[in-house]
Write a structure and sequence with these properties.
Layout (H helix, E strand, L loop, with lengths): L1 E3 L2 E3 L3 E3 L8 H9 L5 E2 L3 E2 H4 L19 E6 L3 H13 L4 E6 L4 H5 L10 H14 L4 E6 L8 H12 L4 E5 L13 H10 L5 E3 L6 H11 L3 E4 L8 H6 L9 H19 L1 H15 L6 H8 L5 H11 L3
Parallel strand pairs: 3-11, 4-6, 5-6, 6-7, 7-8, 8-9, 9-10, 10-11
Antiparallel strand pairs: 1-2
Helix pairs in contact: 1-10, 3-5, 5-6, 10-11, 10-13
């Protein structure tokens, strides 16, 4: 069980927002595999103010998706608050504030992980958003901007906890590390000890069920946010629900791939859908016993019908 404000999930994990990936199709497949909470892709607050952004399948919340979260990125408290109100009115059940993104263009615009350099601005954003919506509001942080000091992390997190933040999600790398090196899950145990009554969610390097279970047990976090580990592997959610689990059979893999691809084609059309799905096909192939051969054939498909035929061939359907 995982409590995030007034939301209660029956299991302590969910799918993180993934820019360019977590559209309606990916979210639907995750839910089918037992994911209790999904997020749309990372949303730029300035973009959210223009309603047409919700025509994008990555950002439009379906009636069958509750609970669904929105993660917002921005540097202006007023704009972030306005965006939060808009996405909540558009059907989102939870607002997460991203103070962790390490993408260079985001940092240059003083958004995301840059805000670890400016605790006052980060808390000003949180307060503005908190006052604009009546749904749970959470914050995502990294340990620091660089390796010099974690003081700003503790300042932001402590003040947010005092202001009743509904959860802190912590990716235990610095912003400057981006995704290099290993996530420091020992740091997450320090965070949980410091804030024992606050919901603490861990993220980073969560690619297998065993790793997730070990990290949760050793760190004591309340839950985990699974990001890249869910790309091409939605079974990670169903496996986490089981005491003893087995990897998906070829037939099970193929059935999910076909369903995912069908949803993508319905969202984007066959031609665009095939192009969009190639990155998912590459990820799905990681579980195939003939990974490289299967991947080579699948990404060579010229149209949707050929792709479907190849899936049936390579996955014994």
């Amino acid at each position: 069980m995982l409590k995030i404000g007034y939301l209660t999930l029956d299991v302590p994990f969910f799918q993180a927002p993934l820019s360019g990936y977590s559209d309606y199709a990916m979210r639907a497949v995750a839910r089918d595999c037992g994911c209790p909470l999904v997020f749309a892709g990372l949303m730029l607050a300035k973009g959210v103010i223009h309603p047409r952004v919700f025509n994008n399948p990555e950002f439009k919340a379906g009636d069958d998706e509750h609970p669904i979260g929105a993660q917002l990125l921005g540097e202006d408290p007023e704009i972030m608050a306005k965006a939060a109100k808009i996405v909540h009115n558009m059907g989102y059940d939870l607002i997460d504030l991203n103070f962790a993104c390490s993408t260079p263009k985001v940092i240059r615009r003083k958004r995301g992980g840059f805000l670890l350099n400016d605790p006052d601005r980060a808390i000003e954003i949180y307060n503005a958003v908190r006052q604009s919506v009546d749904c749970p509001v959470t914050i995502k942080l990294r340990t620091s901007f660089d390796n010099q000091s974690r003081d700003n992390f503790w300042t932001i997190s402590s003040r947010a906890v005092e202001l009743n933040v509904d959860a802190l999600t912590v990716h235990p790398r610095t912003v400057s590390q981006r995704f290099t090196g290993s996530a420091d899950w020992q740091f997450l145990s320090e965070v949980k000890k410091q804030f024992p009554t606050t919901t603490i969610i861990g993220s980073g390097d969560l690619y297998s069920v065993d790793t997730i279970k070990i990290n949760m047990k050793t760190s004591g976090v309340d839950g985990v946010s699974i990001a890249r580990g869910a790309i091409g592997n939605p079974w990670i959610f169903s496996q986490l629900r089981q005491e003893n689990y087995f990897p998906p059979t070829l037939h099970q893999q193929g059935a999910i791939i076909l369903k995912h691809f069908d949803l993508v084609c319905k969202l984007y059309g066959d031609k665009k859908g095939l192009m969009h799905f190639r990155k998912f096909a590459i990820a799905y192939c990681k579980l195939h016993p003939q990974r490289r051969k299967a991947q080579k054939f699948l990404i060579s498909a010229k149209n949707a019908d050929e792709f479907i035929s190849l899936i049936r061939q390579w996955y014994s359907l």
